[in-house]
Amino acid sequence: MSVEDNKAVVRRFIDEAFVKRNPDSVELVSESFVPHTWPSVEPGRESLRQTVVRMASGLSGVQFDVEDVIGEGDRVAVRLTARGTHKGDFMGIPAAGKSYEIAEIHIFRLEDGLIAEHWHVADMLGMMKQLGAMPG
Question: For residue 103, what are the domain limits?
Fold first, then answer.
């Protein structure tokens, strides 16, 4: 797969898994998918599928505005701004009805056209403050 093909897979995954929260988006990751920085997600597709379902029940109006997509070899890095509204239980926090906007960076490694590994850094402290889960 070319770098441009890899970028297209990553953009589709972001849209399907993170924005639309479609559980079938796990078809874009390998059977041995490794989520390095999601402590509650185990390797493989099924744990990711459950996470996508949990996100769907806890958040609404989700938007991911992609600022940069950079690819080299089998890696794709994405810088984006994420927005949403906390409508249900999310990360153990009861619904607050509040909205958030945070910066995130995601790095994906692809293998045979599928996402094999994922790392990400997000302003979770900023999100918790905006949702009222921490003093601001």
Answer: 3-130
The CATH number covering residue 86 comes to 3.10.450.50
Domain count, the chain: 1
Q: What is the pLDDT of residues 46-98, one digit of tens each?
A: 999 998 998 888 899 999 999 999 999 999 999 999 999 999 888 778 888 99
Give CA separation, 3 vs 12, 16, 70, 112, in Å.
14, 20, 9, 12
Position 20 in a domain: yes
| Contact of 53 with 45, CB cutoff 8 Å | no
Per-residue pLDDT tens over the stretch 29-48: 999 999 999 878 899 999 99
Neighbours of 116 (CB within 10 A): 16
Cα 10 → chain centroid: 11
- CA-based R_g, the chain, Å: 15
